[in-house]
Specification:
Blueprint (H helix, E strand, L loop, with lengths): L2 H9 L6 H13 L4 H14 L3 H12 L17 E5 L7 H11 L4 E5 L9 H5 L11 H10 L2 E5 L6 H12 L6 H13 L5 E8 L8 H17 L4 E7 L10 H12 L7 H16 L6 H13 L2 H12 L10 H4 L5 E6 L4 E6 L1 H13 L13 E3 L7 E2 L4 E7 L2 H12 L2 E4 L10 E5 L1 H4 L1
Parallel strand pairs: 1-4, 2-3, 4-5
Antiparallel strand pairs: 5-12, 6-10, 7-9, 7-11, 8-10
The structure holds uracil.
């Protein structure tokens, strides 16, 4: 089958059969398809779309373009499951959720990413822990998934290699914004991990990857349909990103917060609510709990007994970090040299927060990358971030800045205070951070 013929068919808005899509993606993976052809394909898909069958075939072809992890030879005593998020600010859910699910009998081979744009990355957070190795060899990764029940590591070159090339070309050809390309990219990588079930956290709001609530909803529906169509039962929680999820953002600060949750503290937080809701969905979907009440009981036991924290500690130690991080976090997670509070310019109620601006603030402080390959300062970030609906007096802190120097903090303080819109209304109705849950049965 000629690649240019596949391109012609997609250019003319024909639906491609699975064979054509697999042929094309094999060529992307082995290098026989050139960058120009990848760009033409991506543009044709952006302009002409793909139907459900094409999108499923593209996802399966992405998954099969490299190694697909298999777990049955390990005789695991529970299902292999995972969660993935479209990314946000103060979104440290994975650090808590993985060990928590492991403590409830699941096995979580979590392949995570680095920060992208204004959003933080799980790997960057874990690398705030001295010694933590995000690229262990295969044997160590598998041993941890079996024995501890969770290992959070970085993308390997062998999983879904076609996506790496395709994404690189999309990035420079204005073809990122296409639902079938986005879904195949996200799911192709995740499903290559050999999961029995998957729960996705699709963010909605001004700090989300998708630009509007409608676009987030469309992405969520496509993920459920295509993930399940590709053979992995997939559900989605749509969750709020109109403010940072935790009241902090920054790598070491978020590890501290994860430990706090794993110790059973912070149960009134939005972070806890979202993590708990995702965990409940995972346990029920994978058959580790019979229903939401049963899941809640199991999750409570795992937290109250210290088992979830224990799994986190064992994962950290198993990947080269200290064995006593949970007991002595301050010893290992270096604080930023300079902290200062950013006060409200006047009294008012917080009506809106520009979440993206806060995320970019962390990047500017050095907690994220401007260019791929930049070094990260794990110490910096924001904490004590005020929430939507909170009433503040003039001068009262909107957040605390953790910076490498006073000059860095001063350079960005006023920009961060304008991320908060203060209004006169005395109260704003608190909204649930969980907007909706979508499952296959809701869509068919
Ligand atoms: N994240 C991905 O992994 N791929 C996309 O296409 C978009 C977001």
């Amino acid at each position: 089958m000629l690649i240019q013929d596949i391109l012609r068919r997609k250019r003319d808005a024909e639906a491609l059969d699975a064979d054509a899509i697999h042929t094309f993606m094999r060529g992307v993976a082995d290098g026989s398809v050139g960058d120009a052809q990848i760009g033409a394909f991506a543009m044709a898909v952006v302009l002409n779309g793909m139907n459900r069958e094409e999108a499923i075939a593209l996802t399966e072809a992405t998954r099969e373009s490299g190694q697909v992890l298999r777990w049955h030879d390990l005789n695991l005593d529970g299902p292999v499951l995972d969660k993935h998020s479209t990314g946000g600010v103060g979104d440290l859910v994975s650090l808590v959720l993985g060990p928590w699910i492991a403590a409830c009998g699941g096995h979580v081979p979590m392949i995570s990413g680095r920060g992208l744009g204004h959003t933080g990355g799980t790997l960057d957070k874990l690398e705030a822990i001295p010694g933590y190795d995000v690229t262990p060899d295969d044997a160590r990764f598998r041993r941890l998934v079996k024995d501890v029940g969770v290992a959070i590591i970085g993308q390997t070159g062998t999983l879904a290699p076609a996506d790496k090339r395709l994404y690189g070309v999309r990035d420079v050809t204005a073809t990122v914004e296409s639902l079938p390309l986005i879904v195949a990219s996200i799911l192709g990588k995740k499903l290559a991990c050999g999961l029995d079930t998957l729960v996705m956290d699709v963010k909605v709001g001004n700090g989300a990857f998708m630009p509007t609530a409608e676009a987030s909803r469309e992405l969520a529906e496509a993920i459920v349909t295509i993930g399940s169509g590709a053979g992995t039962p997939t559900s989605v929680l749509l969750t709020d990103m109109n403010q940072p999820l935790a009241d902090c953002a920054g790598n070491a600060l978020e590890v501290h917060e994860a430990l706090r949750l794993l110790r059973g503290e912070g149960r009134d937080s939005r972070l806890y609510q979202v993590t708990h809701a995702l965990a409940t969905e995972m346990l029920v979907q994978a058959g580790l709990a019979t229903n939401a009440d049963d899941a809640a009981m199991r999750l409570e036991k795992a937290l109250a007994s210290g088992e979830a924290l224990e799994r986190f500690s064992r994962m950290v130690h198993g990947l080269g970090g200290p064995s006593d991080l949970a007991e002595r976090p301050a010893h290992y997670l270096a604080p930023a040299p300079f902290t200062t509070d950013v006060g409200a310019p006047r009294a008012g109620t917080i009506h809106a927060i520009d979440t993206r601006a806060l995320g970019l603030g962390v990047v500017e402080l050095g907690g994220g990358r401007r260019n791929a390959g930049d070094a990260i300062d794990h110490r910096v970030g924001l904490s004590h971030i005020a929430q939507l609906g909170e009433r503040v007096d003039a001068g009262q802190p909107l957040l605390r800045l953790h910076a490498a120097s006073q000059a860095d903090a001063e350079a960005i303080a006023s920009q961060l205070s304008t991320a908060f819109t203060l209004g006169e209304t005395s109260s704003v109705e608190p909204t649930s951070p969980i907007h909706a849950t979508l499952r296959q049965e809701d869509l068919s």
